[in-house]
TrEMBL record:
Species in which this protein is naturally found: Cuscuta campestris
Listed name of the protein: Large ribosomal subunit protein bL9c
Domain Ribosomal protein L9: 40-76
Keyword Amino-acid biosynthesis included in the entry's annotation: no
Domain of life: Eukaryota
Start and end residues of each Large ribosomal subunit protein bL9 C-terminal domain: 114-185
InterPro entries tied to this protein: Ribosomal_bL9 (IPR000244), Ribosomal_bL9/RNase_H1_N (IPR009027), Ribosomal_bL9_C (IPR020069), Ribosomal_bL9_C_sf (IPR036791), Ribosomal_bL9_N (IPR020070), Ribosomal_bL9_N_sf (IPR036935)
Taxonomic lineage from the root: Eukaryota, Viridiplantae, Streptophyta, Embryophyta, Tracheophyta
Length: 204
């Protein structure tokens, strides 16, 4: 922005010195003498309904002379200004993509996540609702895959089929403890011999 301001000041300074010598500046000659033609200018700032900073637009000579140029909002579209603005944009153009420092997760952090997930599995009950056909027998038995899907949905914990020990599907209403096979590196809570998931099947 400081570069754009300096450009405007230089243009005005040259014009004043030329006027004192009785010489008409070519830019003002074009502005004042050819009123039916529009001027091509380069915007130094974004202007609503006109364009963004750096755009080349056509404007009425009077609008440029009375509004844009005094406020340093635009410069004539001639080679030296195009070249200067191009260089300035390279210097002052903000970076769109900020650098992101990626910190790799340590083994200790991973173990904390595993421990938190294991405790959630052990302390929380997964509830499923099923239709029954006779007494407490359900129409469609609950499989290992269905339990894994419900754990992900209800507890937001992802487990693999090998983590669930379910020899046969659950076929009746009631509460069950399904053994979990988690890595031995995850310490068990005091007094527990193995990890287990509580599953409750209710009537739908």
């Amino acid at each position: 922005m400081m570069a754009y301001a300096q450009i405007g000041r230089n243009v005005i300074r040259h014009q004043l010195s030329a006027s004192e010598r009785g010489i008409q500046h070519p830019l003002f000659y074009a502005v004042q003498g050819v009123r039916h033609r529009k001027l091509e200018v380069i915007l130094t700032n974004s202007i609503d309904k006109l364009g963004k900073a750096g755009d080349t637009v056509k404007v009425a000579p009077g609008f440029f002379r009375n509004h844009l140029m005094p406020k340093l909002l635009a410069v004539p579209n001639i080679h030296k200004y195009r070249y200067l603005l191009k260089d300035q944009s390279k210097i002052y153009q903000p970076k769109e993509d900020a650098e992101v420092n990626v910190v790799s997760q340590t083994n200790e952090d991973k173990m904390k996540e595993y421990q938190t997930a294991a405790n959630r599995l052990d302390r929380t009950m997964v509830v499923l609702r099923k239709f029954i056909k006779v007494d407490y027998e359900i129409r469609e038995p609950v499989t290992k895959e269905e339990i894994i899907a419900e754990v992900a949905r209800q507890l937001s914990v992802s487990i693999e089929p090998e983590n669930v020990h379910l020899p046969s599907p659950l076929s009746t209403l009631g509460e069950f403890e399904v053994p979990l096979r988690l890595p031995r590196s995850i310490p068990l809570p005091e007094g527990k011999l193995q990890w287990a998931l509580k599953v409750k099947i209710r009537r739908k």
